[in-house]
Design brief:
With 163 residues, the protein is an alpha+beta fold. The chain has 4 helices and 8 strands; from the N terminus they run E-H-H-E-E-E-H-E-E-E-E-H. It has helices at residues 10-21, 25-35, 85-99, 157-162; strands at residues 2-4, 39-47, 50-62, 67-76, 102-108, 127-128, 137-141, 151-154. Helix 1 packs antiparallel against helix 2 (25-35).
Length: 163
C-alpha cells in the first residue's frame, strides 16, 4: 500500500534508506530535509506494517514562479527491489505532485531507470543547478513548458551537506 508518510514511520524510513544505499547518508538527508522544512511530500510503501519503500520530493528554490521539486531519495528494501515497488512510488509521487500544481521535477539518478517516467537529460539542458551537465541530471515537465525557458534552481542546503 502506498500512502503519505507519518512521523511514526521515521525509523522505518531511515532503515529502508540505510539498507538500500548501504550507508546512512540518505537517511540523514531525509532527516535534514524534514528539519529544514523543505519536504513537499514523502510517500511510503507499507506491507504488513513494514516500510519496504520510500520516496521524498523536496522544494527547489527557483528564479521563477511555480513549484519545482527534486526527487531524492527513493529507496526500496533489498529483497523487494526489482519487484515494482520503486516504480509504483515514483508514479504515485509524480501523480501527487501533478494534482498539487507542481510545475516540474528534477532528479540526479540512474539514466536507465528514470526515463521510463518521462525524465530526460535534454529537458534539463536549460536548468542551471549544482548538478547541471551530468548525464544523470534529468528533468520532467508536469506543466507543459515548465523547462522551455532557462531556469536557475537551488537545491535545499541538506544536499550540500551530503558532499
Amino acid at each position: 500500500m502506498i500512502r503519505e508518510a507519518r512521523p511514526a514511520d521515521d525509523a522505518g524510513i531511515s532503515g529502508v534508506n540505510t539498507l538500500a544505499f548501504g550507508q546512512e547518508a540518505e537517511a540523514r538527508l531525509v532527516e535534514a530535509l524534514r528539519r529544514d522544512g523543505d519536504v513537499i511530500v514523502e510517500l511510503v510503501w507499507e506491507q504488513e506494517g513494514v516500510i519496504d519503500g520510500h520516496i521524498l520530493f523536496s522544494r527547489l528554490r527557483t528564479d521563477r514562479d511555480g513549484v519545482f521539486a527534486a526527487l531524492a531519495p527513493m529507496a526500496v528494501r533489498p529483497g523487494q527491489q526489482r519487484g515494482g515497488v520503486g516504480s509504483a512510488l515514483v508514479a504515485a509521487g509524480l501523480e501527487w505532485l501533478r494534482e498539487h500544481g507542481t510545475h516540474g521535477v528534477l532528479v540526479l539518478g540512474h539514466r536507465a531507470y528514470y526515463p521510463r517516467f518521462g525524465f530526460a537529460a535534454a529537458t534539463a539542458a536549460r536548468v542551471q543547478a549544482a548538478y547541471a551537465g551530468s548525464p544523470s541530471f534529468m528533468a520532467l515537465e508536469l506543466k507543459p513548458g515548465a523547462f522551455a525557458e532557462p531556469i536557475a534552481v537551488d537545491y535545499p542546503a541538506a544536499f550540500s551537506a551530503m558532499a
